[in-house]
Amino acid sequence: MATETDNLAIRTVNLTKRFRVFHDRPARLKDLFIRTVTFRRPRAELLTALDNVNLEIRRGESVGIVGPNGSGKSTLMAILSRVLRPTSGEVYVAGRVGVLLEVGAAFHPDLTGVENARLTASIVGMTRRQVDERIESIIAFAELEEFRDMPVRTYSSGMLLRLGFATATHLDPDILLVDEALAVGDEHFQHKCYTWMAEHAARGQTLALVSHDLEQVKRICRRAIWLHHGRIVRDGPADEVVEAYREAERLPEREASPHGLGSSC
Question: pLDDT grade, residue 39 (50/70/90)?
Fold first, then answer.
């Protein structure tokens, strides 16, 4: 018998994440010694990045997540991708997840582009045969044929982005999470990535996209979620949520480029 969660890709229940922020950390060894012998502890406060967030994303939905810096967008994505653990609440993520968060963070600097792609594929559970079937497509999409056997520590940030996006999207993820990483790419590759996401969102792949490029959110995503101070302010059709956010924040409307790109993320 089908259950309520059968059609859900992502669900959070009262999701909360707090960070302990320390003030007055000792800058010198002398200061540390004085603080130790006088039993003084650095001042600390709790920063609430996410505050009881209740969210459901169904299979096949394309959802943009918008909001000002510090609103909790990246924290939410890190929890969904299992990079961070929540302080409290529940998180349900169904299926294989492709993640593009911090550019190059998942790569070993001394391994080549091909070796990193193979390693990533093995971590998500793909067989050697499946990897062999995809590796050439990954390198070709990333446009790194000439650099495939070079260690990624020699790659530029743009090259790392290309390898990361190509790897994440060619491993058959059920859910793709993208957090602002495209900001470092050139216009040509941004256009290529946004086109890929739009096509696959139209085909029913689940997508969660964090971006300051509101025009791209409107173009790719049917739904948008507006976060502010760790809470959901509005959740609904992408056009409506983006315009409400833009008006509230007094953000100017920006025209798309002739290639279908808005401003850089």
Answer: low
Instruction: Please choose, from the candidates 257, 253, 251, 254, the residue with its C-alpha nearest in 3D space to the C-alpha of residue 186.
Output: 257
> Which residue bears the tokens 């976060």?
227
DSSP state of 185: S
| Cβ burial 190-229 (10 Å sphere, 16+ → b, else e) | bbbbbebbbebbeeebbbbbbbbbbbbbbbbbbbbbbbbe
- Are 113 and 150 within 8 A, CB to CB? yes
Question: pLDDT-derived band of residue 143, with 50, 70 and 90 as boundaries?
Answer: very high
Residue 88 and residue 4 in contact, taking contact as beta carbons nearer than 8 Å: no
Q: State the pairing for strand pair 62-66/223-228.
A: parallel
DSSP states of 46-109: EEEEEEEEEEEEETT-EEEEE--TTSSHHHHHHHHTTSS--SEEEEEE-S-EEEE-STTTTS-T
Q: Give percent of the chain with pLDDT exceeding 70.
A: 82
At position 90, the amino acid (one-letter code) is E
Whole-angstrom distance, CA of residue 75 vs CA of residue 95: 20
Residue 82 · residue 39 · CB < 8 Å? no
Residue 155: Cβ-neighbour burial (10 angstroms; 0-12, 13-18, 19+)? buried
Q: Taking a C-beta distance cutoff of 8 angstroms, is the pair 113, 148 a contact?
A: yes
Strand 88-93 vs strand 175-179: parallel, antiparallel, or unpaired? Answer: unpaired
- DSSP labels, 223-256: EEEEEETTEEEEEEEHHHHHHHHHHHHTPPP-PP
- Say what angle helices 113-123 and 128-142 make with each other, to 10 degrees: 130
pLDDT, tens only, 44-69: 678 899 999 999 999 999 999 999 99
